[in-house]
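Weekly modeling sync, notes
Attendees: S.R. (lead), two postdocs, one rotation student

Agenda item 3: backlog of single-chain predictions. S.R. asked that every request posted to the team notebook include the full sequence so nobody has to chase files. The rotation student volunteered to paste the first one in as an example of the format we agreed on. Action items at the bottom.

Example entry:
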Amino acid sequence: MARFLIQRTAIGLVLLYFVVTAIFLMLHVLPGDPAELLLVGQGGTATPEAIAALRTALGLDQPLATQYWDYLTGLLHGDLGTSLQDGEPVAAYVVQRLPRTLLLVLSATVVAVAVGIPLGAWTARRGGTVDAVARALVSTGIAAPAYVIGLFLVYLFALKLRWLPSSGYVSFAEDPIGMLQRLILPTLTLAIGFTAIVMRMTRAAVLEVISQDWVRTATAAGLRSRRVLVAHVIRNALSPVLTVVGLQMGAFLGGTVIIERMFNWPGLSGLLVGAVENRDYPLVQGIVIVIAALFIGLNMLVDLSYPLLDPRGRKR
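Predicted structure, as returned to the notebook:
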């Protein structure tokens, strides 16, 4: 296990290096001068002299290789850079916004796993009409765009029933109840499609495991079908489900911008889009690095969990 962990860590660091390099190069070949955009955005006069002075102050007049080396050495010292917009450290933005996105992603994951796995196993076991109806609902949940689901939930629970606020964010320290109320609708918007994916994968995995000879043997030996399903079938079927959950969580870390904009949730995805629009290179690079590191970490946790679910994996 220790050797496996070291190998995965080394691979993760190499992948992270390539992500850093790729995003650095891609941002610098985009059209538009950050210094000019910054001057215009601040209401300044974008004269050639002013643009040249600002490029010098920001270090953008240095050769690309020099900028790249300075950025890498800064990362090794834990410095994510400084925002071009206001001179604030990128790490400060990440520390402020990341917990809000993580809260949203984790809440949606808990709902999807708690609902999708039991329903997927149940429909696989029941079959017939129940399974057909469930598959139709799952297909609808996967196909429906998140913004359509969000608009429907806002209309139903915020406008018609008036049970929940339609959008906004308050900190837990300021108003715990208010924060939880504002978390429900964006969480459900993310969780509905996520639940459908988990449910479909669980159903397929359970059907595959149920057809194995050892399951029929356990049932023929007199074990109750529910015990066989819960203690043996579901446990052995969770590996592919866990893979999908890990990948989906990683995608949510940087892909919830529509939900965050719709519900006015100040998370990391919205900040990333704004940084790209403003050509704020250090902010974009810092956010992407954090998201990539979290994504790689999630996949490492998923890989490490396989031997716990399937003892056969411990021998590899």
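Discussion: group reviewed the output briefly. Residues 2-76 form one domain.
Action items: rotation student to repeat for the remaining queue; S.R. to check formatting next week.
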